[in-house]
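Risk register update: the risk of archive-format incompatibility is retired. Evidence:
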Amino acid sequence: MTIRAINGFVHGRVQGVGFRYATRAEARLLGLTGWVSNRPDGSVQVWAQGPADLVGQFVAFLQAGPRQARVASVTIDDVPPDDTLKGFEVRF
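Archived output:
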């Protein structure tokens, strides 16, 4: 199994619409580890890792977002996995 880790930034109307909690729910459903956090510039940052195909599904979710969000753009960088991560959390 190939493990893929990503660090992503989601721009648009993504704060104050439940984006972080929907992202956490989707990541947990897929069995990914990582975290999601609001950024001061109004974007949301996401770190996720797991099986490459499931991370691909997760990226598709980020591009659409939950119903209340309006995603304008998503930037994804592949990064080395972080073996210290356990579960998927919302960071403040």
